[in-house]
C-alpha cells in the first residue's frame, strides 16, 4: 500500500461509538454465518487449497461461468495488484475520484497513469490506454454506470482491458452487473468482493471473473495460499445461502436517501446524490479534517475525510449510513459543528 485507503478505525479503538467511515453494510454479521464459522475452526490445522478450487467451482456455478474463469483473491485489493502486475508498465486510465488502490497498484508496477473525471467514461479511449480502471458503483461518490454504457466502451475500445470493480454493487439501487459480458468480450475483468454485504472486511475475500485466456495470464502472477482456509470455507458456504443475502438492503438505501436529503437542507453543505449506502458531501467553511476531529472528540462519531481522493478537495467527506438512531445523531452533531463554525 503506497497511498492508503483511509480506514483508520483502529486508531481510535473504543472511542468510536458509531463508524460512518467504512462502506460495508450497516448490519451485524449474520448469526448463521458466525455459527458456521465456529464449526470450521479446525480448518486452520491444514493448508488451504492453493488456488481455492472448490470455491471457484461454487462461484462458477453461481455466476454461470466456467470455474477456470474465476480467480479467488484475498479481498478485491489483491485482484487489483495482480492485474497491475500482469500488465506491468502499461498505460492505465484511472477515472477519478476513485478507490486509491487502483492508482497505488499501477504505481507499484510502473504503469503510466492518466486521469479523467468519472463523468467521462465515454471519452476513455482518447488517451489510448491499455487498461481502464473504474468502480461501478464508484467509491467514493456512488456514481453508477449502466451495463449498456460499459458494453459500448468494450466494443469501441477492443484493444483496451476494462477493469470493472463491482464491490459495492449489492449496496446500491439500480446496479447492473457486467459479469454476463465476460464471455462476449476479451477485454473485460470484473472484480468483486464477498465481504461488503455480509460485513466481513476482516476476512478478506474477493474474486475476479474474465475470459479464460485472461484468467490464465492473471493466474501466472498469483501467489499460492493467499486465501486462508476459513475464508474459503465461508465463501463456499455463502454461495449456497441465498437466505443470508443482504435482506435489509431496501431499508439501508432508504436511510441513505433520507440522510442525503437532510444534509442537503443544511446551509453550507453540498451533497453529491448517490444511489448507494454511502455518499459524498462537501462543507463550504470547515475542512473535512476539522469536522472529523470534532465529531470524533466531541461525539465519538467517525467519518471518512475524503480529501485524499484524487480529484477532491480538503472539504470532501464521505458518509456511510448506519442505523436510524446513529444517522440522527450524526446529523445533529454535524449541524451543531457547522453552526458553531470556526469559533469552536
Protein architecture, described:
With 344 residues, the protein is of the alpha/beta class. It has 2 domains: 9-27 and 248-343, Aspartate Aminotransferase, domain 1, CATH 3.90.1150.10; 41-244, Aspartate Aminotransferase, domain 2 (3-Layer(aba) Sandwich), CATH 3.40.640.10. Helices cover 34% and strands 17% of the residues. It is built from 11 helices and 13 strands. It has helices at 9-12, 31-38, 53-63, 75-86, 100-108, 147-156, 212-219, 229-239, 249-264, 288-299, 324-340; strands at residues 18-19, 70-73, 91-96, 112-117, 131-135, 161-165, 188-193, 206-210, 269-272, 278-283, 301-302, 304-305, 316-320. The chain has a 7-stranded mixed sheet, with helices on both faces. A 4-stranded antiparallel sheet has the order 9-10-13-12. Strands 1-11 form a two-stranded parallel ribbon. α3 (53-63) packs parallel to α8. The chain is globular, with a radius of gyration of 20 Å. The relative contact order is 0.18. The model has no long low-confidence stretch (mean pLDDT 91). Its cofactor is pyridoxal 5'-phosphate. InterPro entries: Aminotransferase_I/II_large, NHTrfase_class1_PyrdxlP-BS, PyrdxlP-dep_Trfase, PyrdxlP-dep_Trfase_major, PyrdxlP-dep_Trfase_small. Belongs to the class-I pyridoxal-phosphate-dependent aminotransferase family. Keywords: Aminotransferase, Pyridoxal phosphate, Transferase. One of its GO terms (molecular function) is transaminase activity.
List the helices and strands and how they pair.
Blueprint: H1 9-12, E1 18-19, H2 31-38, H3 53-63, E2 70-73, H4 75-86, E3 91-96, H5 100-108, E4 112-117, E5 131-135, H6 147-156, E6 161-165, E7 188-193, E8 206-210, H7 212-219, H8 229-239, H9 249-264, E9 269-272, E10 278-283, H10 288-299, E11 301-302, E12 304-305, E13 316-320, H11 324-340
Parallel strand pairs: 1-11, 3-4, 3-5, 5-6, 6-7
Antiparallel strand pairs: 2-8, 7-8, 9-10, 10-13, 12-13
